[in-house]
Amino acid sequence: MYKVVLTDLPPKIKGMIVKEDDCFTILLNSRLSREQNMKTYLHEKKHIERGDFENGGDVDQIERDAHQE
């Protein structure tokens, strides 16, 4: 289960995921366009679906793997 929240994030951060218990919150940067937020939402959702939080590992490597798919 997950929810989506628009919030002010630093300009360089497009989005991120916060996990609390079994619930994921996808944070999207409210300073960015709807189009960019949709791309970021799909990217972050892919991390949830791939189980990246359960796999652990290096965050940089997880991002590299996600961008190669």
* Radius of gyration from CA coordinates: 12 Å
Helix content: 40-55%
What is the beta-strand fraction? 25-35%
Number of strands: 3
- Indicate the overall shape: globular
Question: What is the chain-wise order of helices and strands?
Answer: EEEHHH
Describe the structure.
This protein has 69 residues and is an alpha+beta fold. The chain has one domain. Helices cover 45% and strands 28% of the residues. It is built from three helices and three strands; from the N terminus they run βββααα. The radius of gyration is 12 Å and the shape is globular. The protein starts with a strand and ends with a helix. The mean pLDDT is 86.
Topology:
Blueprint: E1 2-7, E2 15-20, E3 23-29, H1 34-50, H2 52-55, H3 59-68
Parallel strand pairs: 1-3
Antiparallel strand pairs: 2-3
Brief sketch in words of this structure:
This protein is an alpha+beta fold and 69 residues long. It is 45% helix and 28% strand. The model has no long low-confidence stretch (mean pLDDT 86).
Entry keywords:
3 helices, alpha+beta, globular, three-stranded mixed β-sheet, 69 residues
